[in-house]
Amino acid sequence: QVQLVQSGGGLVQAGGSLRLSCAASERTFSNYAVGWFRQEPGKEREFVASINWSGGSTYYADSVKGRFTISRDNAKNTVSLQMNSLKPEDTAVYYCAAAPSYYDPRWDYWGQGTQVTVSS
Fold first, then answer.
1. How confident is the model at residue 36 (pLDDT cuts 50, 70, 90)?
2. Contact 37, 45 (CB under 8 A)
3. What pLDDT does 32 receive?
């Protein structure tokens, strides 16, 4: 069982930056792949980025590639999503999730979600 606690998010103007964090207390968190997803009201949840257990492999949705960076610090049991050059269309509730496998992820554990609002 992995419990994920998110922090960060908020309101920012277009072109600005925000940083989201996803933390877990379990030491086994370092064995999990972690992904970030987002969901707008009335829409399905969409994939944003993922990172494998070591941080050596990352993958991004085309819509955020070059603007967002996912990273992890296994010593601190945290995964971060640095979001730069934010656009109004990035507005959504963001969720982190953990999966035992990076290449065939089953996102078994989810954070509580955090609102990101980008004003134009």
1. very high
2. yes
3. 94
